[in-house]
Structure formats: structure tokens, C-alpha cells
Amino acid sequence: xxxxYIIAAEDLLLKYRRKDKAALNHLNLKxxxxxxxxxxxxxxxxxxxxxxxxNGALEPTEGEIKILGGNASRxxxxxEEMIYSMxxxxxxxxxxxxxxxxxxxxxxxxxxxxxxVKSLGxxxxxxxxxxxxxxxxxxxxxxxxxxxxxxTKVTLLDEPFxxxxxxxxxxxxxxxxxxxxxxxxxxxxxSHNLAELESVLSEMVLIHxxxxxxxxxxxxxxxxxxxxxxxxxxxxxxxxxxxxxxxSDGELGSFCIGRGKVNCRLAMQARQEGLxxxxxxxxxxCVYLTSExxxxxxxxxxx
Amino acid sequence: xxVDFNQLVPIYIQIADAIEDDILAGKLLExxxxxxxxxxxxxxxxNPATAAKGIRLLVERGILDKVRGQAMxxxxxxxxxxxxxxxxxTLGEMINAVVLEARKLGIGQEELIVKxxxxxxxxxx
Lengths: 303, 125
Hints:
Chain A is α/β, with parallel strands linked by helices. Chain A is about 30% helix and about 25% strand.
């Protein structure tokens, strides 16, 4: 059982204060082992809350969450098997990078110090610099590389690439993938840059306002929705079908978004009627499945 | 081999198609070992699960075969099978698109056929 699901949340509810809206709303989610899983959601959707419940920094209001079959806040053994890392960790600003590496080395038994030192060299980060003197991107890179070098069974990365420039981000993705292939283990990564990260991921979780929208293989997400473009009159005919989850009318044309592959029956029917059918990329899938049809909301700004 | 992350065709299908193109081009011969999942993942910087899915698709299409615990091998008759499928699917879809575009422009059947013939001539077919 432990091999199948590395993280298992059951009816997980978290409220920061008793009267607050739930940050996580009775979440049921079982994550497969040895995958690189993207945790995607808008600001305030519950990503960080989920991570904090995983590593035991928060106790659930109701329900439970198990990591490697155990409970992170009670099971001390899990501290060595799991790492939670974000772009900035509460370490002293006067600490040198070298000292930070030493701390990681003490905390995580499989930490590969040589790997960490070499990879920071690739990122051009001098070991004798203090954390306070690093740019935000460099600080992110230090914590990211240390989380990789820790080689824990579960690696939770909360917005690890914030502030890192595009060239170094690409290096970071490559290091992540290669190290995963050399040492297969489970990664859960939250990010707002799904377009960049999607080729690295094998699975993806989408949450919205504390609710699970889906947990799917990346390739299924690429085939989850299709888009139909064309004249208003023709598109209107499709709007009320139950597969349609979003629609928009404009002066230049109308479109609607439907559930299914680009070659599903409804999509084929649209094509037959001369409408344009195209697939929807994953980052847009997230938008369409979580938006509440507030497309004209901006208009009030310039009235 | 090239995959285009901006293209909306799923990456695993692009991988399968790219391998088929290499087989058609003679870069991979029938009986040859196919590129491994790890090589594809490493060189294209994609998740190995996606690479594996591309290979699996070719097994389903009957192009690749696992020879006794060894690497995936290009099956005998693969070239012919790829051609048959591509004529039906890929070429079929392209012709479909051409016909739809012609209809949009008000070009009739006869005129379209003449244009196709001219194009064949131009390209020495």
C-alpha cells in the first residue's frame, strides 16, 4: 500500500480560524509514488496549506494525511525521508551558503554534498557568500539545489523557481529531470509557470479554492478539453450541450470550450459544420476549469 | 528528433511520430533497436513517463516489438505499416483540410483537381 500511494489525504479539512472559509475543503487525494507531480492552482487555492499539512507544520482540522504511511507531525523518522522547500527558508541572513549546505548535510542522511557544491558552481553561486547578500533568484537556487541533493523519498517544492532567470530555470528543470532518472523518487512541485514545467511533469493536480478539480496524467490533461471557434450563430448551437464548460461571445467571433479530445464526437460534429476545432493547452485547461465566467469584470476599471 | 512544446499535439504522440519518421527515412531499419526511454527523456528534456508512453504507442501500432527482455526493436514490415496508416490518417486529414479550404474559397472540384495536378507537376511527382 505504501508503495502505491506516497501521500494520501482523506477528507482533509483545514480552517485557519473556526469561522474562516476552509483553506482545504474535505480533500481526498492519493498521490502515486515515483512521479514528478505538479501542484497547480491560483493564489490562495490551498497549495502551501497542502504542503504544510504534508510536512506536519499544520494539523488538519478534520480528516487525515499520511506520508509514506505515517504522520509527519508525530513520526520523527519522516523528517529524514521528506523535505519541504520553498524559495526562501527562515535561515539567518548572515549565514554563509557553505554553512547552509552543512545544515542540510546534518539533517538529511542521503544528502549529496559534492552534488550540491558542484550544482551551485553551475549556478555561479559562491559558497562563501552570505544568504543576505544573494539575489532572490540565487537564494531560490540554493534551496532548490539543496532539496534535490537531499535525495529524500518525498520532495515537496513550493514555488521553487521564483526569481530565477529563464536560462538558469531551464538548467534547474534539466537537473531535476536527470536526478530523478538517476534516483527515482517522488516530487510534488507547485508553480504558476505550468507552460514551462509541463514537459517535466508526469502528473498534475489542479486545486481551486481548497477543492480538488482533478489529479491526472499530464498527457490526459493535454487531451482534456477542446475549443470550438466560429460564427456566433453556429457556436451558439453548441453552447447548451452538457460537454461545454465555458463560452465567450465577441465581435470577432465566438468560441466555446468542451470536455473531451479534439476527435471526440461533439468536436467532429463541430468540424463537420465548418467550425474550427483545436486542443486546449494545459495552462488554459486550468483557467477554463476554475474561472467563474467573469470575463467582463475588468470593464468597471475604465468606466 | 524534435518535439515542439508549443505545438498542441501531445508530446508522446510527437515522439511516436518522430520515431516513425526516422524509420521511414531509413535512420532506423527494421530489426534495429529503437532509442531507449532514457535516451529520449534525457535528450529532449521530458519526463521519462512521457517518453515511455510514446514508445508504448508504437507497440500498440505494431511498429515496435519487445524482443525477449531486450530493448524495443523495429518490427519487420514496419515501414509498410507506417505508410498505410499515414496514407489513411495523415494524408487523409491533409486532403480534408485542403478540400475544406477550397470550399471556403469557392473553388470547385474540377478546379481543385487541376490545381493538384499542377502542383504535382511542379514538384516532379
